[in-house]
Each structure stands twice: as C-alpha cells, then as structure tokens.
Amino acid sequence: MHDLLFQNQTHLKLKDLHHYAEKLELDLVRFDFELSDQVYRQRVNEHVDSGNAAACAACRPSSSTARSWMFRSGSITCTTRFTRS
Predict the structure, then answer these.
(1) What is the pLDDT tens value at each position of the chain, 85 positions in all?
(2) 76 with 70: CB under 8 angstroms?
C-alpha cells in the first residue's frame, strides 16, 4: 500500500484508497470499517507531530543559510510544518 500511495500522491480521495485496497486484495470490509471508524487517526497524528518536532530540530538556525525560520513578533519561528488531516 505504501508504494501505491507514494506513487499516487495526487490521488488520495476515499474512492482512490478503496481502489488501491481492492487492487491489493485487502479485506475490504475491514478496510472500510477501519477507515470510516478512524482507527488509526491518533497514531497518524502522533507521527505528524513527531515529524513537525524533527523538522524543527533539523532546521535550527545554526548558520546564515538556514531558510526554514522566520523572525515574527519578536521571536524566531520555524516555518517548516506538516499538516494534519
């Protein structure tokens, strides 16, 4: 599934996801239930949050070439962010 999602990053609507699950011969009843019940939402959100923290740690302004930071309202702010769905 990972490869299909990566290859089709612009096609991630519900109907697309269902098509990929079908193509991979997954248990569609379970797939539909877990998708609609948002079984993994908390886990995904934790990964997004850890990615944001890692991105902030990785782009600390250690030299003049750091471009992921912005001076705003009297403080330096990391502008690298991933979004939650």
Answers:
(1) 889 988 998 998 999 999 999 999 999 999 999 888 888 888 888 877 776 666 565 555 544 444 455 555 555 556 655 555 5
(2) yes
The C-alpha atoms of residue 40 and residue 42 are separated, in whole angstroms, by 6
Measured CA to CA in angstroms, residue 1 lies from 10, 17, 31, 39, 43 at distances of 15, 9, 12, 17, 17
Residues 6+ apart with CB under 8 A from 85: 44
Q: Which residues pair with 72 in a beta bridge?
A: 75
Residue whose C-alpha is closest to residue 83's, from 52, 42, 39: 52
